[in-house]
Every structure is written in C-alpha cells, then in structure tokens.
C-alpha cells in the first residue's frame, strides 16, 4: 500500500531530513511513526502526498510509484489520501462547514451531498454545534477536530495524521485516538506521526521509529 | 467543479476585489466605447468613400465647334486605354434633356432654353480612381476640349481624413486594449495574492489546476464581457444622436440606418473580444502567480 524504498530527503538548504528509509505499510494497517522533534516525521508524511519529492529512492502508493508521476497526476494521488496537518492549515476566512466542505468540492461532489457528508463528519468529531463558527474563535482542540473532519470527510483510503493529539488534553486525546482506530476499523489505512509515547504504548500497533532521519525500528511488515 | 460553483466562487472573488473590479470595468468599458465609436465612424466613412468613388468621374466639355465624330473617336481611344470603366457621350440634346429633367417644376425657366447653350461632353469613369488625374491630363490635350472637371481633390481629402481617423482610432484602441489587459492582470494578480493561503491548502487536498484557475479565469472573462455589454448600452443610447449628425455632415449621401442586426453584430463581436481580452489578462496573471 505504502512502500518506501531507500528514500532520502535532503532539503535545498542542505538539511538531511531522512536518510535511507525502507519500510512498507499494508492496506488497512494502523501504524505509528514516532521519534523526537526534528526526527523527520512530518517530512516523511509530506513525501507520501508529494508535497515534497525524495532526493533519492522511490515511494509507492497503491503499487504505483509516485516519485515519477507528472504534476498533473498529483491531485488524484492527494484525493485518495486524507492528511491531518500538524499546523491544521484551516482557512481563517471560511467557516468550519466551508473548511470541511473544501475537500469535497475539490473532488467535485454536489451541494446536497456536501451538506450531508459535512454534517455527518462534524457529528463524528463532536463539532456539530460549531458548524458556522470561524476557526479563529475555536480552541486548539476544536481546530484539531476540524482538521480531522476535513481529512476524513471524503472517506479516503489512506489517512495520514501528523501529531493529531498534540494540541489536546489527555482525555480528548484518547477520544481522537479511538476515533482513528474506529476509522481504521472501517478499512482505512491509518498512519499516525506522534511523539506522544503514552498513546503509542497503549495501542498494540506497529511503531516505525525514526531518529535524526534514520529508521531505528519497525521496518518489518 | 460545475458551472454554477465556478460562477459562485467567481462572483465572490469579484465582490472581494471591490475597487479593482470597478477600475477594470471602467477602463474596459472605455476601451469598448471608444472602439465602438471608431468602428461606427470607419463604417460610415467607408460608405461615404464608396459613394464618392462611384461618383468619381472626369467630365470633359467640348467646344460648340467640335464635330460629333471627333468626340466619338476620342471616346473610342479612351476606351482603348484600359484605364476606363465607362465612357459616356452626352450630346448637346441629351444635356438639355438631363437639365429639363432636373428642373421639371420650373416651366418658365425651361421655355427660354435650347440645346445650343449646353456643351457636349464625355463622362469618364476610371477603373481605379487613382488614374483619374491621368485621364484628366489626356483629355486636356484633346483638340476641341473646352474644360476638364473632376472630383479628385474631394476624394483625396476625404480619403486622407478617413485614414487619419482610422489610424488614430486603431492606435487609441490598441493603447486602451493594452491598458485593459494590464488592469485585468493587476486585478487578478491581487485576487490570487489574497487567496494564496487558500490556494496552497486546496492544492494539498488535491484540487486540480483548473479547479483553482477556473474562477480567476472566469473573473477576467466576466470583466471583459461585462464591460463590452455596458459600453454597448451607452452606444445604444447615443446612436440615435450620432446618426442624424453624420447624415447632416454628409448630406446628399445616403447612409443606411443602423439596424438592430448591425447593433447586435457589433455587440456580439465586442463580447467575444471582451472575453478574449479578459481571458488574456487572467492567463498572464495565472502564469505568473500560479506556476506548479
Ligand atoms: N522545508 C524545509 N527546509 C529545510 N529544512 C527543513 C524543512 N522542513 C523540515 N526541515 C528540517 O528537517 C528536519 C525534520 O523536520 P520534520 O518537520 O520532518 O521533523 P518532525 O519529526 O516532524 O518534528 P516535530 O516532531 O517537531 O514535528 C528538521 O531538522 C527540520 O528543521
Ligand atoms: Mg512534524
């Protein structure tokens, strides 16, 4: 489903963020990517949606190499992936509804469809009553849930979550983790990058550990 | 993304662009208004010119002493030059008839007139009006010719005037067109700029190029088409005043009135040009600021 084959990423300023990374994640799996701050977790996830391209090596998503695809093919790759960004990337000028609806507009769904699906997903993340609020009025945890809703609303095959419990108190954090597990239970491949080791140890899932851009463990399928 | 959605996003962007929208529309409306005026005046001067050309002839009046045979032979030799479209011999009697036809309502005047006071003449029309002076020169040298008259100067003057209007018009329209494109370019660029963050996010969640570009392109086209339309409303309003003005200036020359069809044709052409102009401005802005 997701395969990294000898992948290295060196940024243009010379930072070697990832070096010689090899692993594969099967369809339907729930995997953690852990490591200290600056280890390269976000960089790794960005490579999967081709926000960044690897300097060396090859990456496969659904058996297709995404390293050599044309720019024109990038949107369809991104549409099958839901991405919960570490910094949320919510649009301040749009309401919660509009932010979440954006994902569906991009895939070309009709108005009625969008209204139903957004209502449903906001219900799932427990934000129904904030549907018409603007992000600037939301708490950190609420923003995080909007980001999750936006990543989920189109029912992607793959969900990438970058530090999804970062801004949340432990109790709410657990709710989010349960939610991610539930989504995984529906057949979605879930990849969670985090340095919250409590969460990791409580769930008996595979943990791909990276440190200073190198794979430490978790390579095996 | 369907048409309704693009339209919705476009209208939102247009509203958000506020003053830039106003500037774009004003400048483009002016461009189309001026273009329309020049198209109309080019159309009218073309009609006037054709009329003058059709009337363009050299007339050689012959002395009373000239024999009909020698006039006829002059006619033949002119026809052999290949420069003439038509040479008509008007005898003294025919000239009288023509005169009588023009003054039917004045019997007193006609009573006292006989064919002897009218000179016989040759009316010569050239294939190309540029050859009129040559023909006039030839006629002046013919034995028995009293006077040679032709309209060359009127036509040349009018042609010059029409050309000046045409070139000045083309230049002005060109400059205004360029300014229009620039204004749209600036407006769309700033619209793109103000939505930078949104564009980045839309890209990351998988929006296609055209999903992102569409509304900006539509915005430019909307300015162009809207301006063309507004300018035609103004033209429609002043047309009833222009027409009598030209008719008065060129009295005696039949200028066909503008029909609904001509106005609609002009509107159609300008709408197309509006769309092209707006699209062109938008595309430059998109190429500059939305590179992948
Ligand atoms: N665009 C960039 N250009 C240059 N260097 C970068 C860029 N993005 C990240 N880096 C560097 O790459 C390394 C890995 O960063 P990354 O964001 O992947 O770490 P992370 O594991 O997600 O950290 P955190 O847990 O703090 O989010 C860091 O040293 C970072 O400074
Ligand atoms: Mg990170």
TrEMBL record, chain A:
Residues 2-221 form the ABC transporter domain. InterPro entries: AAA+_ATPase (IPR003593), ABC_transporter-like_ATP-bd (IPR003439), ABC_transporter-like_CS (IPR017871), ABC_transpr_LolD-like (IPR015854), Cell_div_FtsE (IPR005286), P-loop_NTPase (IPR027417). Gene3D superfamilies: P-loop containing nucleotide triphosphate hydrolases (3.40.50.300). The keyword Nucleotide-binding applies. One of its GO terms (molecular function) is ATP hydrolysis activity. Its main location: membrane. It is a peripheral membrane protein. SMART domains: AAA (SM00382). It is found in: Cell membrane. One of its GO terms (cellular component) is plasma membrane. GO terms for biological process: cell division. Keywords: ATP-binding, Cell cycle, Cell division, Cell membrane, Membrane, Nucleotide-binding. Belongs to the ABC transporter superfamily. Homodimer. Forms a membrane-associated complex with FtsX. Part of the ABC transporter FtsEX involved in cellular division. NCBIfam families: FtsE. This is Cell division ATP-binding protein FtsE. It comes from candidate division WWE3 bacterium CG23_combo_of_CG06-09_8_20_14_all_40_14.
Automatic annotation (TrEMBL), chain B:
Its main location: membrane. The keyword Membrane applies. The chain crosses the membrane at residues 21-44, 167-188, 221-243, 255-286. Residues 171-292 form the ABC3 transporter permease C-terminal domain. It is found in: Cell membrane. InterPro entries: ABC3_permease_C, FtsX, FtsX_ECD. Coiled coil: none annotated. Keywords: Cell cycle, Cell division, Cell membrane, Membrane, Transmembrane, Transmembrane helix. It is a multi-pass membrane protein. GO terms for biological process: cell division. GO terms for cellular component: plasma membrane. Residues 57-148 form the FtsX extracellular domain. Pfam families: FtsX, FtsX_ECD. Belongs to the ABC-4 integral membrane protein family. FtsX subfamily. This is Cell division protein FtsX. It comes from candidate division WWE3 bacterium CG23_combo_of_CG06-09_8_20_14_all_40_14.
